[in-house]
C-alpha cells in the first residue's frame, strides 16, 4: 500500500506541475522566445541533451524557440590545443586574427552542427544560421575602458544592425534556428568580428519582437552583493539594474547588460538562469517562481 500511496503522490505532483504550466503555455503559444545557450551546459553531454529536449518541448507546445550560442569553453580549449594564448579583459575575450579563425571554426563547424544534430534526434526540426549569413548581424569593432584606459579587444565587435530575415525564414518554415554569434564588420565587410553571444541574443530578441529572452549562466542568478549568497535577486526592474551594473563582477556585466538592452528594446521579460540545472528553462518559463533572475521594465 505504501508503494501505491507514493505512486499517487508522485502522480499528483506531476499533474499539479502540468496544470501550473497551462497559463504560461497559453501566454507564450505562437510567440518567439530567444534562448542563449552557453556555459557549463555546453560542455556536458547530459546538460546539452536536456537543453535540446527543452527546446523541442517549447516547439511542441506552440512556442517558437530561437537558440543563440557562444562557445567560450570550447574556444578556449581549442586555442590552448593550438598554442594560442587566451586573454579576457572586462569580461570580453581579446580576439587576435589567429584566434578569430579558431572562433569561426568552433562556433559554426562544431557547436552549431552538434546542437542541430541533438535537436534533430527528435525530428527534422533545427537549422544552423551563422551570424554572418545574409548580414544577420552587422558589427563595429569595440574596445572597453578599464580604469580610464581604452583597451583594444582585437577582432571583437558590438552589434549595430540586425537583419532577422534569415532567422524568420527558418521560423516560418517550422524550424528551430540555431544562431552562432559572428558578425561581418560593417566598416570592413571582408572581415568578421567575434560578438558576445549574450549581446547577440539580446539584439536578435529585440529585432524579432520576442516575448522573452533567457540567458543560461553558470550561477543561480544575479547576486546584488556577491559573494553574499543571501543576496540572490529573483526579480529586478530596469532602473534598479542600471544602477547596480557598475558594481557587478566583470563576468556578469555582459549578461545583465544584455538583459537590460532587451527589455529597453521592447522585449517584455529577460532572465538569467542556471544552465547547470537540467530543464531550468522549463522551470523559468512554465512556473510562477521561475528559476533565476528576471528583468522587466520599471512599472
Describe the structure.
The protein is of the alpha/beta class and 299 residues long. It has a single domain (20-296), classed as Carbamate kinase (3-Layer(aba) Sandwich), CATH 3.40.1160. The protein is 41% helix and 29% strand. It is built from nine helices and 16 strands. The protein has helices spanning 2-28, 45-60, 72-81, 97-119, 165-172, 197-208, 238-244, 253-264, 280-286; strands spanning 32-37, 64-69, 88-89, 92-93, 126-130, 137-146, 149-162, 176-180, 182-185, 188-195, 212-217, 222-223, 232-233, 235-237, 269-274, 292-296. An eight-stranded mixed beta sheet has the order 5-8-2-1-11-15-16-14, with helices on both faces. Strands 6-7-10-9 form a four-stranded mixed beta sheet, covered by helices on one side. A two-stranded antiparallel ribbon has the order 3-4. Strand 12 and strand 13 form a beta hairpin. Helix 6 (197-208) packs parallel to helix 8. The N and C termini lie far apart (52 Å).
What's the arrangement of secondary structure elements?
Elements: H1 2-28, E1 32-37, H2 45-60, E2 64-69, H3 72-81, E3 88-89, E4 92-93, H4 97-119, E5 126-130, E6 137-146, E7 149-162, H5 165-172, E8 176-180, E9 182-185, E10 188-195, H6 197-208, E11 212-217, E12 222-223, E13 232-233, E14 235-237, H7 238-244, H8 253-264, E15 269-274, H9 280-286, E16 292-296
Parallel strand pairs: 1-2, 1-11, 2-8, 5-8, 7-10, 11-15, 14-16
Antiparallel strand pairs: 3-4, 6-7, 9-10, 12-13, 15-16
Amino acid at each position: 500500500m505504501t508503494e501505491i500511496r507514493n505512486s499517487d503522490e508522485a502522480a499528483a505532483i506531476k499533474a499539479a506541475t502540468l496544470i501550473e504550466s497551462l497559463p504560461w503555455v497559453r501566454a507564450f503559444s505562437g510567440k518567439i522566445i530567444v534562448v542563449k545557450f552557453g556555459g557549463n551546459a555546453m560542455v556536458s553531454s547530459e546538460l546539452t541533451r536536456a537543453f535540446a529536449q527543452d527546446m523541442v518541448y517549447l516547439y511542441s507546445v506552440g512556442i517558437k524557440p530561437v537558440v543563440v550560442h557562444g562557445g567560450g569553453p570550447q574556444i578556449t580549449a581549442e586555442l590552448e590545443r593550438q598554442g594560442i594564448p587566451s586573454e579576457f579583459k572586462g569580461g570580453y575575450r581579446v580576439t587576435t586574427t589567429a584566434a578569430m579563425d579558431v572562433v569561426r571554426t568552433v562556433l559554426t563547424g562544431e557547436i552549431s552542427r552538434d546542437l542541430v544534430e541533438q535537436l534533430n534526434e527528435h525530428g527534422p526540426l533545427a537549422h544552423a544560421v551563422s551570424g554572418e549569413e545574409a548580414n544577420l548581424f552587422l558589427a563595429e569593432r569595440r574596445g572597453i575602458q578599464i580604469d580610464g584606459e581604452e583597451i583594444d579587444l582585437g577582432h571583437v565587435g558590438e552589434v549595430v544592425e540586425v537583419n532577422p530575415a534569415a532567422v524568420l525564414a527558418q521560423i516560418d518554415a517550422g524550424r528551430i534556428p540555431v544562431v552562432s554569434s559572428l558578425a561581418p564588420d560593417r566598416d570592413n565587410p571582408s572581415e568578421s568580428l567575434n560578438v558576445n553571444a549574450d549581446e547577440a541574443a539580446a539584439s536578435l530578441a529585440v529585432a524579432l519582437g520576442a516575448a522573452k529572452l533567457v540567458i543560461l549562466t553558470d550561477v543561480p542568478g544575479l547576486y546584488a552583493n556577491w559573494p553574499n549568497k543571501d543576496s540572490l535577486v529573483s526579480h529586478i526592474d530596469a532602473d534598479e539594474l542600471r544602477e547596480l551594473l557598475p558594481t557587478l563582477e566583470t563576468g556578469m556585466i555582459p549578461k545583465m547588460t544584455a538583459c537590460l538592452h532587451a527589455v529597453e528594446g521592447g522585449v517584455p521579460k529577460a532572465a538569467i538562469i542556471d544552465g547547470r540545472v537540467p530543464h531550468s528553462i522549463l522551470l523559468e518559463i512554465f512556473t510562477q517562481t521561475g528559476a533565476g533572475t528576471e528583468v522587466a521594465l520599471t512599472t
